[in-house]
């Protein structure tokens, strides 16, 4: 399998890395993290101007259509830079789902605003249906949406919530303004410093709020692309955590020599590198599977990737902190923030055990 990137893909990766290095350094990120909002709307609009919010959207709908590999390269750079903005949730999952809905005035206007960074649209479910259920009932004047989701990443900062609701045995998709009467959000911060909320819905929306009455396939594709992108985000974070740990091992002197000279630490660093390369291979496999026509093969590759990348993320995160000593958990070092991001990744989007079971079912039919 050829893992080399095209000239266009390499340019996309280089542009994203320059943006992260120039506009999202550690001190800049700390200012954003400490702010009341917990994200930067200005930087989000800059991402729109660069076209990075349009990667997953076909050119016919005003997107770039960078393909799974282009999205992977950008997500990896975002993970390395510890981006707090909801790139994957909005620019991968939400845009994919909306773009796959039937064209119409409301859908087209919403998608255009999303790609420009003018509207932040966040799905209630990022990769898998999460605990809590939303039900949709059609009434004379519109649709009644009722239900609760206990954890929705980025909900408090969204302009629009993308709501998947059960209706007559199918999944309908709605665009609901966050500030609409009947939308209640109790906000909190997560382990990985994201803004999240407990969302309760009990409202009637207009007929035009329904983007699709049968969005099962669109959401399935969006969830698959989101899971592959989250693996890429974790890969970028692991790469940066290992790099920081190697630099520390070369500079930290104990008993007159750098600690990286000690054989026991060299073995641990080598193990981290092996796990990183395995995670890289599985991330590439997950990305390439998105073009797979057979949904069983695609889901097997994605679940296998999430399980292995999740295991590697936890191991590398923990070793990075331990090899830094007590200072590894301080906010002043970026390795502590990679630890939080990677730990959250392993716990989210389906547990390792759940994805191992899914991989077995998809691969072996058992």
TrEMBL record:
Residues 221-358 form the Acyl-CoA dehydrogenase/oxidase C-terminal domain. It comes from the Bacteria. Pfam families: Acyl-CoA_dh_1, Acyl-CoA_dh_N. One of its GO terms (molecular function) is flavin adenine dinucleotide binding. Its cofactor is FAD. Keywords: FAD, Flavoprotein, Oxidoreductase. Residues 6-118 form the Acyl-CoA dehydrogenase/oxidase N-terminal domain. PANTHER family: ACYL-COA DEHYDROGENASE, ACYL-COA DEHYDROGENASE FADE28. Belongs to the acyl-CoA dehydrogenase family. This is Acyl-CoA dehydrogenase family protein. It comes from Marilutibacter penaei.
């Amino acid at each position: 399998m050829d893992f080399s990137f095209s000239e266009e893909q390499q340019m996309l990766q280089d542009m994203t890395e320059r943006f992260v290095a120039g506009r999202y350094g550690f001190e800049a990120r700390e200012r954003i993290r400490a702010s009341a909002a917990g994200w930067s709307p200005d930087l989000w609009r800059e991402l729109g101007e660069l076209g990075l919010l349009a990667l997953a959207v076909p050119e016919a709908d005003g997107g770039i259509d960078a393909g799974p590999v282009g999205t992977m390269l950008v997500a990896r750079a975002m993970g390395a830079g510890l981006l707090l903005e909801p790139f994957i949730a909005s620019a991968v999952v939400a845009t994919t789902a909306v773009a796959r809905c039937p064209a119409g005035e409301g859908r087209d206007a919403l998608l255009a605003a999303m790609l420009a960074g003018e509207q932040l649209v966040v799905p209630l479910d990022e990769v898998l249906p999460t605990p809590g259920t939303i039900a949709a009932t059609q009434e004379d004047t519109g649709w009644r949406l009722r239900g609760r989701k206990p954890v929705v990443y980025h909900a408090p900062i969204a302009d629009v919530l993308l709501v998947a609701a059960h209706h007559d045995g199918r999944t309908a998709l709605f665009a609901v303004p966050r500030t609409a009467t009947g939308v209640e959000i109790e906000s909190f911060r997560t382990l990985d410093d994201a803004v999240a909320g407990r969302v309760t819905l009990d409202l009637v929306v207009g007929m035009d709020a329904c983007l699709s009455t049968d969005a099962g396939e669109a959401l399935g594709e969006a969830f698959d692309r989101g899971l592959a992108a989250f693996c890429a985000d974790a890969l970028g974070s692991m790469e940066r955590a290992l790099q920081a740990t190697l630099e520390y091992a070369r500079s930290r002197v104990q008993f007159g020599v750098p600690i990286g000279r000690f054989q026991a630490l060299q073995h641990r660093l080598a193990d981290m590198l092996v796990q990183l390369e395995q995670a890289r291979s599985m991330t590439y496999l997950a990305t390439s599977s998105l073009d797979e026509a057979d949904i069983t093969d695609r889901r097997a590759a994605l679940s296998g990737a999430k399980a292995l990348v999740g295991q590697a993320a936890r191991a590398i995160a923990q070793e990075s902190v331990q090899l830094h000593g007590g200072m590894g958990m301080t906010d002043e070092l970026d390795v502590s923030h990679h630890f939080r991001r990677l730990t959250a990744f392993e716990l989210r989007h389906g547990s390792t055990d759940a994805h191992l079971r899914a991989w077995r079912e998809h691969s072996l039919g058992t």
